[in-house]
Specification:
The structure holds two protein chains of two kinds. In chain A, 35% of the residues lie in helices and 25% in strands. In chain A, the strands form two sheets. A six-stranded mixed sheet of chain A has the order 6-7-8-3-9-10, sandwiched between helices. A four-stranded antiparallel sheet of chain A has the order 2-1-4-5, covered by helices on one side. In chain A, helix 3 packs across helix 4 and helix 4 crosses helix 5. Chain A is globular, with a radius of gyration of 18 Å. Chain A is an alpha/beta fold. Chain A is built from nine helices and ten strands. By secondary structure, chain B is mainly alpha-helical. Chain B has one domain: MetI-like (MetI-like fold). Chain B contains nine helices and no strands. In chain B, helix 3 crosses helix 5. The chains are: A alpha/beta, B mainly alpha. The structure holds adenosine-5'-diphosphate and magnesium ion.
Amino acid sequence: MTRQNDEPDAHVVLAYRDVHKQFGDFVALAGVSMEVRKTEVVCLIGPSGSGKSTLLRCTNGLESIDGGEITLDGQVLPRHGRGMRAVRQRMGMVFQNFELFPHMTALANVASGPLTVLRLPRGEAEARASALLAKVGLADKAASYPSNLSGGQQQRVAIARALAMQPEVMLFDEPTSALDPETIGEVLNVMKALAEEGMTMLVVTHEMSFARRVADHVVVFERGTIIEQGPPAQIFDAPLVPRTRDFLSHLGWEG
Amino acid sequence: MSLDFSPILQSWQFLLGGLGLTLGLAALTVLCSLVLGGAIGLARCYGPAWLRLPLVFYIDSMRSVPVLVVLVWTYFALPIVTGAVLPPFWAGLIALTAQIAAYMAEIVRAGVESVRPGQTRAALALGMSRAQAVRQVVLPQAVVRMLPAFGSILSIAIKDTAIASVIAVPEYLNRSQTLAGESFRPIEVYLTAMAVYFITLFPVTRTVDIAYARLAHLGRS
Ligand SMILES: Nc1ncnc2c1ncn2[C@@H]1O[C@H](COP(=O)(O)OP(=O)(O)O)[C@@H](O)[C@H]1O
Ligand SMILES: [Mg+2]
């Protein structure tokens, strides 16, 4: 499948070539090929269990792949553990369940990467963390523990924590799926602002209106393979593959 | 009959010395068990596979044998086998530590395993090493979650020191026995012993419970 918005000079940040992943006999990714370009927002959609989270975890090495290759800025990622640590620092990851560290304040959560991984002096790490909390609209919550924050606030802190490592690309795994409906908007707004600043983003989501409005490119997963990919206008208004339409109508998407 | 507590009042220094020894033995036991049990618990979670079997064997056997049997072995049988005679206090410390460290190891392991894997994943995703993830993210939460069980271990350690009286460690119960024999006032002496153990232990368990109530949210991910 080819991209319709191909720009020959667009810089490819992440490229997946025929990526395979198995858990025992179960094939979670059966030959996935796609690209994420600089400043682009790519949304991954598809039924649950189709391998979207697995693809994100393989991207930053939380899972190893069994075949094919993934490149970051043209360099093939190491398949196993060791070399992955340096690579992970260049990717930010945001999880469905936030995964904030409960024993740290919001500020300490955001500063934890710069302090522990980059070994920045405390003052510098905390200044960076404060600025990022302000950016996600939570300057007043710096001293709060996660247990005193709403889901939407926790997820915004988690986004700030990932940004603190100044990543080249952000990976989002269903960032709003665990949220109460009234707090979904505040998280999506932060993500939208990030996209407008030019952050490269790979987003697994069930928020179709977000994908429709913000994505540059939408990839539809089913059972470990990509059944269709293209610009949102194609996927949402005129899908080429009937199963894409089935999936979208199943979600109540009217087009 | 009428109760007469005067022998206890006359010998309060003798008993207080025993209480000091009880608390000292308990404190050392808890400290050693914390180090040994913590290491064993962590080794079971993160150590090499070949180490697990011997560790599980150690933990299971300590949990299946009464502490008195372990004590008798370290004090009476070990010298026969090795030729080295241990002073009673050290034999008591070793036996109590051997037993309580096994329980501590299980508490540590359960605490570590109860922290959901997503927390480790989040730490690794930031670029932390596995060791950093354990130290900075998993252990602090696990320690908070372990507090209630740790409180129980603390009181069990203090109570179990009484067993060392059988090898004549002059701790509180041993001194009570001596005093009961000399004064012919066993009822009063053992009533006092009950009260002393209670007054010592009650604040310990309450303090741990209060600390946990305050800190629980720090371990809730
Ligand atoms: N660690 C694992 N071990 C075994 N099976 C797994 C593991 N992780 C994911 N899977 C399986 O792989 C499939 C894809 O999972 P996932 O990538 O989480 O799907 P999605 O994110 O699209 O819902 C699922 O069927 C899931 O059960
Ligand atoms: Mg998923």
